[in-house]
């Protein structure tokens, strides 16, 4: 399949999944009712279900997946390791810590931009720290361990904040951000993080050529004319913005940034630059589908999307890690 | 056409002086090989040209400019560099590795066009890689992979080439082919500075041999004047017999000097 074929197939699947997300749910709607609700017709009830409940939630899952998939693909290209991912490297956890801080101090309800900014600040701090560490430690495996440590530390601080949470409402809010969910998201919730998310994706896309050349290692990439500091900056800032914005929307959702690029890579001859857009689409698709699954699953309490993503993604992570030859670093 | 000149370059790593006043000059049309034992500073000399390592002192010019001060892409268009260690993070196709040689010409991954595509094809055929062009690199032998990296460096078609052991892991036939390729590259008016391990191979193809020992260039000249048993003893610490038969060289190592 050509790159274009891959993109068209994935885009069509994303549209189909969005349509399915509107159709499926506790009140089954027929395609005719969904289409007329989308067009502004149908009953007021149908319009509420489609426009205020199902579609915003599906779109939230899509953009969060796109941000995490692209960030994962770009970090993997930069660090030359298929296990690099915002969740594994502690970027998502640090961003969620930022969000938790804002909730703890009660700022989230008064200032629309407080939570996204705090999440993005957390994510940028993590990506910057990782890049400084990457230059110093030289080994990607060590770097991933640094990320795991960072993730645990952010988790511990979040647990501390939850422990000290002033009242049960903020506790349940914090839990949502720690576990990751797109339940009850409206389009209004997507507006504040959207510019950061789009900027992050654009910055990652701007750095994609350098990622291809990094296939040759850092010395080889420099030899063919890559401006390494610039490529590093673009990935750090881009992944920080995109992941931070994704966490601001849905909390910490792990592993999708590993799984999607891993599936995409063989379709584009393993060229890191060409994995970015298909990874965005596939990660978005996976989260939209997982969220439909969460909604229709016959459980008393709705499962959190992040929990399902981890249940499915963590075994894949272990599988990829176990199959890697140790010699390749 | 561009000349490479390295004058009095010092490189210090930590407290260790790896290069001490090293100088070498490669004019257009010349193939110069750097010879020396492990740790003599051969790789550091190439890296110091590019500015990958900081030079404490000294002056480097590639086509009139210091490569370390050129923007990355401009430097790559002027100086092609084949490093000694050539990791590949992903099992990309041979064709894509070679196309990365055109990175500084603005080639987007996967789809070189026009002159870039032609340069990639020339490099593939020069390195005898057409049959392997669409193979993923993780299915190649060490020698085939080495040729893919040589082709990557040749595809840049830069006027100056720095190659660090381009014949490592090659069988005698492909060793000869790669060196002939670099010889042809120099004969076309380009400047090549190549690190080699084997003095006889260097003598067969190079215009001059630059002998590095302890971070200094201890001799620099054509094989006729510099490839001697005394030099082999001085630089490598070996007792060697050197013979010249019909323009071909043979160096036999008898043991430690």
Salient structural properties:
heterodimer, A: 329 residues, mainly alpha, ABC transporter involved in vitamin B12 uptake, BtuC, globular, B: 257 residues, alpha/beta, Rossmann fold, 6-stranded mixed β-sheet, 3-stranded antiparallel β-sheet, 9 helices, 11 strands, 33% helix
Description of the molecule:
The complex is a heterodimer of chains A (329) and B (257). In chain A, helix 5 packs antiparallel against helix 12 (228-250). Chain A has helices at residues 3-23, 31-38, 44-79, 91-104, 114-137, 140-163, 168-179, 187-190, 194-206, 208-213, 217-223, 228-250, 256-264, 272-296, 305-323. By secondary structure, chain A is an all-alpha fold. Chain A has a single domain, classed as ABC transporter involved in vitamin B12 uptake, BtuC (Orthogonal Bundle). Chain A contains 15 helices and no strands. Chain B contains nine helices and eleven strands. In chain B, strand 10 and strand 11 (248-256) form a beta hairpin.
CATH superfamily of chain A: ABC transporter involved in vitamin B12 uptake, BtuC
Largest sheet of chain B: 6 strands, mixed
Helix content of chain A: over 70%
Number of extended strands of chain B: 11
Q: Biggest β-sheet of chain A: count, sense, barrel? A: none
Largest two-chain interface: A-B, 30 and 35 residues
Number of domains of chain B: 1
The overall average pLDDT of chain B, rounded, is 93
Low-confidence stretches of chain B: none
Give the strand content of chain A: under 5%
Mean pLDDT of chain A equals 90
CATH fold-type name of chain A: ABC transporter involved in vitamin B12 uptake, BtuC
Question: Using only CA atoms, what is the Rg of chain B?
Answer: 18 Å
Describe the secondary-structure layout.
The complex is a heterodimer of chains A (329) and B (257).
Chain A: H1 3-23, H2 31-38, H3 44-79, H4 91-104, H5 114-137, H6 140-163, H7 168-179, H8 187-190, H9 194-206, H10 208-213, H11 217-223, H12 228-250, H13 256-264, H14 272-296, H15 305-323
Helix pairs in contact in A: 1-3, 1-14, 2-3, 3-9, 3-12, 3-13, 3-14, 4-5, 4-6, 4-7, 4-12, 5-6, 5-12, 6-7, 9-12, 13-14
Chain B: E1 4-13, E2 16-26, E3 31-35, H1 42-50, E4 57-62, H2 72-78, E5 79-82, H3 94-99, H4 114-126, H5 142-155, E6 160-164, H6 172-187, E7 191-195, H7 199-205, E8 208-213, E9 216-221, H8 223-226, H9 229-236, E10 238-245, E11 248-256
Parallel strand pairs in B: 3-7, 3-8, 5-6, 6-7
Antiparallel strand pairs in B: 1-2, 1-4, 8-9, 10-11
């Amino acid at each position: 399949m050509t790159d274009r074929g891959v993109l068209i197939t994935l885009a069509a699947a994303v549209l189909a999944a969005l349509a399915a997300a509107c159709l499926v749910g506790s009140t089954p709607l027929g395609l005719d009712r969904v289409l007329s609700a989308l067009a502004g017709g149908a009953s007021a009830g149908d319009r509420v279900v489609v426009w205020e409940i199902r579609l915003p939630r599906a779109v939230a899952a899509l953009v969060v997946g796109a941000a995490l998939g692209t960030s994962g693909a770009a970090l993997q290209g930069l660090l030359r390791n298929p296990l690099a991912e915002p969740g594994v490297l502690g970027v998502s956890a640090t961003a969620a810590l930022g969000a938790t801080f804002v909730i703890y101090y009660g700022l989230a309800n008064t200032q629309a931009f407080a939570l996204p900014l705090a999440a993005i600040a957390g994510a940028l701090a993590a990506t910057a720290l990782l890049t400084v560490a990457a230059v110093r430690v030289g080994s990607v495996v060590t770097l991933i361990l640094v990320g795991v440590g960072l993730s645990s530390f952010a988790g511990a601080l979040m647990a501390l904040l939850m422990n000290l949470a002033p009242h049960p409402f903020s506790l349940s809010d914090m839990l949502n951000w720690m576990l990751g969910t797109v339940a009850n998201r409206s389009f209004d919730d997507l507006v504040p993080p959207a510019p950061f998310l789009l900027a992050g994706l654009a910055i990652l896309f701007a750095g994609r050529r350098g990622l291809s050349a990094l296939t040759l290692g850092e010395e080889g990439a420099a030899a063919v004319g890559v401006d390494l500091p610039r490529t590093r900056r673009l990935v750090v800032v881009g992944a920080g913005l995109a992941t931070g914005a994704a966490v601001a929307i849905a909390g910490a959702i792990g592993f999708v940034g590993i799984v999607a690029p891993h599936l995409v890579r063989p379709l584009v001859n393993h060229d890191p630059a060409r994995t970015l857009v298909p990874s965005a689409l596939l990660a978005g698709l996976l989260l939209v589908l997982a969220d439909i699954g969460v909604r229709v699953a016959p459980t008393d309490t709705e499962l959190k999307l992040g929990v399902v993503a981890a249940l499915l993604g963590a075994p894949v992570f272990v599988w990829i890690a176990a199959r890697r030859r140790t010699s390749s670093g | 056409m561009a000349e490479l000149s390295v004058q009095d370059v010092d490189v210090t790593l930590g407290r260790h002086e790896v290069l001490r006043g090293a100088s070498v000059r490669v004019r257009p049309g010349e193939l110069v090989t750097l010879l020396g034992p492990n740790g003599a500073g051969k790789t550091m000399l190439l890296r110091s040209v590019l500015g990958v390592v900081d030079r404490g002192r000294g002056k480097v010019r590639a086509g009139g400019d210091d490569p370390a001060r050129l923007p990355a892409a401009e430097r790559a268009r002027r100086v092609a560099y084949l490093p000694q260690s050539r990791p590949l993070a992903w099992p990309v196709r041979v064709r894509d590795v070679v196309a990365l040689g055109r990175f500084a010409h603005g080639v987007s991954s996967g789809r070189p066009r026009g002159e870039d595509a032609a340069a990639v094809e020339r490099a593939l055929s020069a390195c005898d890689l057409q049959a392997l062009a669409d193979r993923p690199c993780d299915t190649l032998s060490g020698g085939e992979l080495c040729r893919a990296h040589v082709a990557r460096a040749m595809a840049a078609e830069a006027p100056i080439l720095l190659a660090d052991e381009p014949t490592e892991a090659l069988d005698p036939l492909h060793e000869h082919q790669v060196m002939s390729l670099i010889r042809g590259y120099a004969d076309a008016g380009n400047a090549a500075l190549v690190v080699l391990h084997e003095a006889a191979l260097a003598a067969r193809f190079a215009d001059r041999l630059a002998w590095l020992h302890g971070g200094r260039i201890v001799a620099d000249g054509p094989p006729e004047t510099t490839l001697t048993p005394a030099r082999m003893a001085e630089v490598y610490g070996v007792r060697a017999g050197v013979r010249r038969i019909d323009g071909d060289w043979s160096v036999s190592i008898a043991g430690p000097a």
